[in-house]
Every structure is written in structure tokens, then in C-alpha cells.
Write a structure and sequence with these properties.
Strand order of the largest sheet: 6-5-4-3-2-1-19
CATH architecture of the largest domain: 4-Layer Sandwich
Largest sheet: 7 strands, mixed
Radius of gyration: 22 Å
Number of helices: 12
CATH topology of the largest domain: Metallo-beta-lactamase, Chain A
Distance between the termini: 6 Å
CATH class of the largest domain: Alpha Beta
Low-confidence stretches: none
Strand content: 15-25%
Helix content: 25-40%
CATH superfamily of the largest domain: Ribonuclease Z/Hydroxyacylglutathione hydrolase-like
């Protein structure tokens, strides 16, 4: 078996790994680079059979539903089989009705925790991991007597940290080559750790108690751990969590009754449909979708009165609705996403500027979706691969200082396993 990393040896995002054995090939992820100016002008990696027909390309396996791992899939030959988690498929389908450039992808097979699947000469054993993306997997791939372990994106400080502990305590054995992410390197010193979701919950509780009006939290609805954190903090402070239709559909797409959603048994939850979203749903012919939120709806005329008792899952364009409803008195905005989106030219920067203009306090409360250096050390030691190759990192040169048996690779080069 051999492999090549098409993107990721020196960058975060755009991940694509090609594995080949016995004349058959599979891809692990096919992401849109984070620095891509737009989808249309971003070329596919140099993989035979992506845009043409090649019987040797047996499928694309998606580790999770973040765009930097699947974002170029809409460009490929639709006959290529896609393999992903069932919830990932549901998330992408839910987002396709709301996000302008999102698409619904259909899986030919599903990844399930520790259930091996066979794709030609490749046996893939997924391991569900803790990550800010729901339904994320690491994978063990065996073929031709060789074994590869791909970490995907993972962490050890989320609400599913027990999955990381389980991976450490029962790590894949006899791994010839490990592809391990290093997103956090360069962000933390080697002995620092990221705050946990529980730490964030305590911070949110304090801030919500200090907020006179509505608490507006700008976070991804697909970061289910964070939505749970915000819901718990809202409930603890006597507030209701207000979500829009997009967030409601994403939460329903988890398929988990234990996740907050507009369904029987969930209190302290309301659904508000912003004007822009109402127009969008009507234009798509799916306005009836909101009928399923009956009993949970909150209307524009109710926003101002309920503001001191509310937390809203929020995006910058919603601020005009709140302004028109006179619901911004005493409001505070909490940014709960990657700080990179606050850079000039991104929507987060525009939101912060708008808040400054309106006199609305703006604060970041966030933690990473990726493992810190100390947890990556634990993972590398537990797997004890014969070779470890950095991926999904801007800091490949730091790997040899932190881990054993490191081999530095270049994008596009074939590596014998």
C-alpha cells in the first residue's frame, strides 16, 4: 500500500489523502482549502478519476462534515461512491436548504463506530472521536498487510472527551504509518491546554447573569457541543435559547433525542424565523417546514419583551430583525467561533464593527475543536506508529521536537507504507 497527501502537509484545510493498493484507490477527505477565494475557481487535486471515469477510484471517505474536509466533493464525477457518517449526511442535507453554497451529499455506505467496511482491497475501521464537528471519525485502514491510522480532526476537551480517552486506552496496534493532525501547534505552548466545554459553560453563565438584555451568541449551529453548552448556560440562568430554522433543522438532523431541539420534552427553547429566512424558505417552496415548530415559535413582537430572559444563537445578518423589534437594549454579543473569522474581510469583522457602531459589547468566548499538544503527545504515544506524518497543520517542523518516528512529507509525493 502507498499513499500521497495532496493537501495538508503544510496547511490546515483542503485535506485530501489518496491511498493505492493492488491497482485500486480511495480518497480520505476532499476538502475546500481555507484560503480558497471561491469554490468555482478552486481546482481539484491531481487525482485520476475525480472529474473523469476511472474504475480504479473506488470511493471518497469523508471523516466529518466540515467544509475543509468535503468542500470539493460537488466538483467530482457524481458516480464516485461517497462514504460518511449517517449524521454527517443528514447535516449536509439540512444545511443545503439554508446555506447558499451548501449541497446535499448522498452516502453509498455509512461510517459507524468500530464497524469495519470493505472497499475493494481496503478495510476501514472508523473510530468516533471528540471534535467540534458532530459525527467525526478517525480511521484505521488496512490493505496488503499494511496498516495506516488517520486521526482526522479530534480533541480531548469537548463534551465527548470519553471517546478520546477510549481511543488512548484501546489504541490501534501495529500501525505502520500514522497521519496525525496538528492544528493546535503554534496556537499553544507545549504545556498549555484549551478550555473545556464545561469551562465555557461556566463563563457563559457568568456573562449571561451580567447581561441586562438579550445575549447574542455567534456560533456555528453545527457545533453541537457548543449549542449544548449555550443551552445549559441559558437554562441555568433562567433564560430560553432562541434558535432559527436552520439551527432547528441541524439539531434535528443529529437524530439524538438527547440534543436540544424543538421537540416534546425540551423546555427553555424557542424558534424565531428571521425575515430573510422567511423569504428564503418561501422561495424554495419549503415554507411549510416551520409548521413542525408549532408550540416553540417566538414572533417579532415578542422579542423585546423576552430579551432580558433570552439567549439567541445568532449570525450578524440577524441584527436588523432585532433592531426593528427594538430588542437590542442591553444586548451583548459573544463570539464563539474561530478568531480567524474576525480578520478583515470576513463576516465576523463586519459584525464586530457593527457592534462597535451600535455600542453593543463584543466578547470572544471560545475553545478549539482540535487537540492541544499534550493530548497529541498522548495519542502519538498510545498508537506508537512506526512512522508519524504531520497533516492538517501549518507547523510540520515542530513535530520532530514533540513526537517520535516523525517523517516529514510534501504535498503530492507518494509514500510507501
Amino acid at each position: 500500500m502507498r499513499l500521497r497527501i495532496h493537501r495538508g502537509t503544510r496547511e490546515i484545510g483542503g485535506t485530501c489523502i489518496e491511498l493505492e493498493n493492488e491497482g485500486a484507490r480511495i480518497l480520505l477527505d476532499l476538502g475546500l482549502p481555507l484560503n480558497a477565494s471561491d469554490f468555482a475557481s478552486t481546482p481539484l487535486p491531481n487525482v485520476d478519476g475525480l472529474s473523469t471515469v476511472s474504475n480504479s477510484l473506488l470511493g471518497i471517505v469523508l471523516s466529518h462534515g466540515h467544509r475543509d474536509h468535503w468542500g470539493l466533493v460537488p466538483k467530482v464525477n457524481p458516480a464516485i461512491p461517497l462514504i460518511m457518517g449517517k449524521a454527517t449526511e443528514s447535516f449536509l442535507r439540512a444545511a443545503a436548504d439554508f446555506v447558499p453554497d451548501a449541497v446535499a451529499l448522498t452516502a453509498s455506505q455509512y461510517l459507524e463506530h468500530r464497524k469495519p467496511i470493505q472497499i475493494g482491497p481496503f478495510t476501514i475501521t472508523p473510530r468516533l472521536v471528540d471534535h467540534s464537528g458532530f459525527d467525526a471519525y478517525a480511521m484505521e485502514i488496512t490493505s496488503g498487510g499494511k496498516r495506516v491510522f488517520y486521526s482526522g480532526d479530534l480533541r480531548a476537551h469537548g463534551r465527548k472527551r470519553k471517546l478520546f480517552d477510549a481511543l488512548i486506552s484501546d489504541a490501534p496496534r501495529n500501525i505502520d504509518l500514522m497521519l496525525m493532525e496538528g492544528s493546535s501547534l503554534g496556537r499553544l505552548s507545549d504545556d498549555e491546554t484549551f478550555p473545556s466545554e464545561e469551562d465555557l459553560e461556566e463563563t457563559f453563565v457568568t456573562r449571561f447573569e451580567q447581561t441586562e438584555g438579550i445575549a447574542l451568541v455567534a456560533c456555528s449551529a453545527q457545533n453541537i457541543d457548543r449549542v449544548v453548552t449555550i443551552y445549559r448556560a441559558a437554562k441555568r440562568t433562567g433564560r430560553s435559547l432562541i434558535i432559527d430554522a436552520y439551527a432547528a433543522e441541524v439539531l434535528k438532523a443529529t437524530g439524538r433525542d438527547s440534543i436540544p431541539q424543538p421537540a416534546p420534552g425540551w423546555s427553555n427553547l424557542a424558534v424565531y424565523i428571521p425575515q430573510r429566512q422567511r423569504v428564503q424558505l418561501k422561495a424554495k417552496g419549503i415554507a411549510s417546514l416551520v409548521d413542525s415548530y408549532r408550540g416553540f415559535r417566538i414572533w417579532p413582537g415578542q422579542l423585546a419583551g423576552s430579551a432580558p430572559r433570552s439567549v439567541m444563537l445568532f449570525r450578524g445578518w440577524m441584527i436588523s430583525d432585532l433592531d426593528q423589534a427594538d430588542a437590542l437594549t442591553g444586548a451583548r454579543v459573544f463570539w464563539s467561533q474561530w478568531d480567524g473569522y474576525l480578520a478583515e474581510g470576513h463576516a465576523g469583522a463586519a459584525l464586530r464593527t457593527d457592534c462597535e457602531r451600535r455600542g453593543i459589547p463584543f466578547e470572544t468566548i471560545h475553545t478549539s475543536g482540535h487537540a492541544g499538544p499534550s493530548d497529541l503527545k498522548r495519542l502519538a504515544a498510545a498508537v506508537a506508529a512506526k512512522r508519524l506524518i504531520p497533516i492538517h497543520t501549518f507547523e510540520q517542523l515542530r513535530f520532530p521536537k514533540l513526537f517520535s518516528n516523525v517523517k516529514l512529507a510534501n504535498d503530492g509525493e507518494w509514500i510507501e507504507v
